[in-house]
Amino acid sequence: MAQATQAPGTPVRHDWQQAEVRAIHDLPLFELMDRARAVHLSEQPESEVQLCTLLSVKTGGCPENCAYCPQSSHYETPVKGEAMLQVDEVLAAAERAKAAGSTRFCMGAAWRSVKDGPAFDRVVDMVKGVKALGLEACVTLGMLEEHQAQKLKEAGLDAYNHNLDTSPGFYKSIISTRTYEDRLVTLRNVRKAGITVCSGGIIGMGESVDDRCAMLVQLASLEPHPESVPINALVRVTGTPLEALPPIDPTELVRMIATARILMPRSKVRLSAGRSELSREAQLMCLFVGANSIFYGDQLLTTPNPEKNADQDLIRSAGLTAQAPS
Ligand code: SAM
Ligand code: DTB
Ligand code: SF4
Question: How far does residue 161's CA lie from ligand 2's centre (Å)?
Answer without folding.
Answer: 10
